[in-house]
Design a protein that fits this description.
Shape of chain B: elongated
Radius of gyration of chain A: 23 Å
Structural class of chain B: mainly alpha
Radius of gyration of chain B: 29 Å
Largest interface: A-B, 29 and 26 residues
Oligomer: heterodimer
Structural class of chain A: alpha/beta
Largest sheet of chain B: 4 strands, mixed
Distance between the termini of chain B: 33 Å
Number of strands of chain A: 14
Order of helices and strands of chain A: HHHHEEEHEEHEHHHEHEHEEHEEEHEH
Number of strands of chain B: 4
Largest sheet of chain A: 6 strands, mixed
Chain lengths: 381, 391
């Protein structure tokens, strides 16, 4: 199978051993920042405040320090491998060599602009569309119908029978996934309660608000206790409390050991929720990795490794203008005592010395761009 | 957790289709509407029939001598003739007012005057009687016995096969069978198409096909809706037989039961044939509105036998074209049972038609399944024939 060959290099790229020198430096910088006890980002990106929690608690934080790397390797056979998918619609190439893997217990965020190929990829995983080449493997073997039946799926275009009652509909879908009638009834109660739509089980789906329909749609994806979750835009159109509930559910499913893949345009949410992120543009995967890996310039695929964005440093303290005379750095942004510089030949230590020479340094930390910025950067390359 | 067997998957889908459809308002409404339509038709036939077979005639005093002969002739052909004596002027006025159908006068030639026209039956009745009376008188004047002359010129009508005493009943049954089959096939065939489009337009099909095969979904839908159609057919048939027997309209229950059995068999054959086509059509469009133009041609083969059954076969049960078409698969499901009800189809003819239809079902189902599989996940513009038939 041609696709299998594509899988191998990608796995290696994801392995801890692939770390670059730039990453090592960034880790030192990060450690330094933490020693100062400051969050380098909290004054310019409010959404970042919650992020370190995810990175700190996740198995897949800093790749060089990853405590779970060995465990992950041991469970490698359990991954959902998407290998070298290609798909053409007439003359249009929808996917070209799309390769990534999702591990059990991992929430994988799939991002990309409209028409980039997210939905096509997911439909191929679900078997509702067939790939021209490449394959999807689960626990080492190609995904067959039996496994596909154990995937929980939320299609991009929401799909439920509008005139069927919520409870009946969910029970029916569970039964189609080979769940017994009794278990189906129990699952309907469990999931509608969990997602807060238990009072609507006897209402027709079309009578529910869009947000509630979406909760029911997630129930439909979860009703058969799936081994894998594939959700296309599960968060679009949800109110904040529903986003919270759904995030919690996805996290919990991942913690049960289920690989969770979802696509979204809400990059802050992806950054907060996902262990790893895959960025697709024009049918090609342009980056795969943890947000930190993307930040450090890792995660590039097809040999497209790039200049690490992490070579930027936030300095708070010295009076404005101190950095303009320093060789080998470039001032990216300046706001009062806060200066953001980009290393362009100089090292972080050079910057620190220059800053200290100019005045007292209160904060010195690597700038960690949010996923939004990384995304723009990666996609525009 | 093991997967579903094809049978289980089809069964689940079929059960959902059946219970959803049977519990829907449209099912009960469909039965009520069908009964109302049949009731109205029965009433109209009855009413028009009685209108046609009775007439009022004004006869002037000059024409009075033929009155007894007119009454006698009317009774002989089963018509009700109400005769009143009028003056020529009065009679004309009453005809003008619509109180009389026509007025008969002799001054000295015979005239039968109606308002716009005189009904064929009335005019031929009157003409025959007047001519006969005139001839009789002429014969008597010539010394001949009219009865002897008439006997010499009599033509005896006979049939090679004994005339069926239940012919009228059979005709009624044939028409009812044709109408029932027509309604059931159209109704539940389009229900299949609409169901397919509903799943496409609501996108639920993608969710369903992530767990079961397209063919199983299609088979479940066709079987489920087909069962609903069968149930409706049986309910209507049973009501028809019971009401017919109770009111005395139906005096040939054996023929009726036979017609019902034939209707059920042909409904099943026809349904699989047409439902497959309807399902394929439904899978090619994404919205209900687009469906109409695509399914309109499917109506044609269903409509044609219906027209035959209602307009041609009653007068000419062995019509050659109808006989030939009753073997052709898409026409057979309504034409053959109509011929059966009329009692003009031999058992081997029925058998051949059934075998041909079964063969057609195999081919059509395979083709429809391919179109369905190729089209059901494509949304947006109508799927082209080339794309639908590919692979």
């Amino acid at each position: 199978m041609e696709g299998a060959e594509h899988v191998q290099p990608q796995r290696r790229a994801d392995e801890p051993g692939a770390a670059s020198a730039a990453v090592d430096r960034s880790v030192q910088l990060l450690d330094g920042a933490q020693a100062h006890g400051a969050d380098p980002a909290d004054h310019d990106v409010a959404g970042q405040i919650g992020r370190p929690r995810t990175l700190a608690t996740s198995c897949h934080g800093r790749m060089t320090l990853d405590p779970c790397a060995r465990i992950r390797s041991a469970r490698f056979a359990d991954v959902l491998d998407i290998g070298g998918l290609a798909k053409r619609f007439g003359t249009r190439t929808a996917l070209e060599d799309v390769t990534f893997s999702v591990r059990p217990g991992e929430v994988f965020g799939f991002v990309g602009s409209n028409g980039a190929g997210k939905t096509t990829t997911m439909r191929i995983v679900l078997g509702v569309l067939s790939a021209d080449s490449g394959e999807v493997r689960w626990k080492g073997s190609p995904l067959d119908e039996d496994v596909r039946r154990r995937i929980g799926y939320m299609p991009e275009e929401r799909g439920l029978y509008p005139k069927m009652k919520v409870g009946e509909q969910l029970a029916y879908l569970a039964r189609l996934h080979a769940v017994s009638a009794a278990d189906a009834a129990a699952a309907v109660t469990r999931w509608t309660t969990r997602l807060g739509v238990e009072e609507r089980v006897n209402d027709e789906v079309q009578k529910l608000s869009l947000g509630n329909q979406q909760r029911v749609q997630l129930c439909a994806a979860l009703i058969h206790d799936p081994e894998i979750l594939v959700l296309d835009e599960p968060f679009s159109g949800l109110d904040p409390s529903a986003v919270e509930v759904m995030s919690r559910v996805l996290r919990d499913k991942a913690d049960e050991g289920v690989p969770v893949v979802f696509s979204s345009h809400q990059l802050d949410l992806v950054e907060r929720l996902c262990d790893r992120v895959g960025i697709i543009a024009d049918g090609r995967m342009v980056a795969v990795g943890t947000v930190s890996e993307l930040r450090s310039g890792g995660g590039g695929v097809h040999g497209a490794d790039h200049r690490p964005v992490l070579s930027r440093i936030d300095v708070v303290g010295p009076p404005p203008g101190w950095a303009s005379s320093v060789d080998g750095i470039r001032v990216v942004a300046s706001d009062g005592a806060h200066t953001r510089v980009e290393l362009d030949g100089a090292t972080d230590q050079d910057v620190l010395k220059a800053a200290l020479a100019a005045g007292p340094v209160h904060e010195f930390s690597p700038y960690r761009p949010p996923l939004t910025e990384l995304y723009k950067d990666v996609v525009s390359r | 957790m093991t997967g579903l067997s094809p049978g289980q998957a089809i069964g689940l889908v079929a059960r959902r289709e059946f219970s959803t459809q049977v519990r829907s308002k449209s099912f009960a409404i469909g039965i009520v509407i069908s009964l109302v339509i049949f009731g109205i038709y029965a009433f109209i036939f009855q009413f028009v029939g009685s209108q046609m077979s009775s007439s009022t005639l004004g006869v002037t005093s000059a024409a009075q001598p033929v009155v007894p002969a007119l009454q006698q002739a009317a009774t002989a052909v089963g018509r009700t003739l109400t005769i009143s004596e009028v003056s020529a002027a009065d009679g004309a006025a009453q005809v003008q007012a619509g109180d009389l159908d026509a007025v008969l006068d002799r001054s000295p030639g015979w005239t039968l005057t109606g308002r716009d026209a005189v009904g064929d039956e009335l005019s031929s009745l009157v003409s025959t009687v007047v001519r006969q009376t005139t001839l009789d008188q002429a014969l008597q004047s010539a010394g001949q016995d009219p009865a002897t002359v008439t006997a010499q010129g009599r033509v005896t009508v006979a049939t090679l096969e004994p005339e069926d005493p239940e012919r009228g009943q059979r005709l009624g049954l044939a028409i009812v069978t044709a109408v029932l089959l027509f309604m059931s096939l159209i109704g539940y065939g389009s229900a299949v198409a609409q169901g397919v489009v509903e799943e496409k337009s609501s996108r639920v099909v993608e969710l369903l096909l992530s767990t079961i095969k397209p063919l199983h979904l299609l088979a479940g839908k066709v079987l489920g809706l087909g069962a609903v159609g069968l149930l409706q057919l049986l309910i209507l048939g049973a009501i028809g037989v019971v009401v017919g027997s109770v009111t005395g309209l139906l005096t040939a229950p054996t023929a009726a039961a036979g017609a019902l059995v034939a209707a059920v068999i042909w409904y099943l054959l026809g349904f699989f044939l047409y439902a497959s086509v309807y399902a394929a059509a439904g899978s090619m469009v994404s919205r209900q509105e687009e469906l109409q133009s695509l399914v309109a041609p499917i109506m044609f083969p269903l409509l044609l036998p219906f027209i035959f059954a209602v307009s041609v076969l009653p007068g000419d049960p062995r019509n050659t074209l109808a006989t030939v078409l009753s073997f052709v698969p898409f026409f057979a499901p309504t034409l053959m049972p109509t011929r059966q009800a009329l009692g003009v189809a031999a058992w081997w003819e029925v058998l051949i038609a059934i075998v041909l239809t079964l063969a057609a079902i195999v081919g059509v189902v395979a083709l429809a399944a391919r179109i369905y599989r190729n089209s059901v996940l494509r949304t947006g513009a109508r799927v082209s024939w080339a794309e639908a038939l590919r692979g």
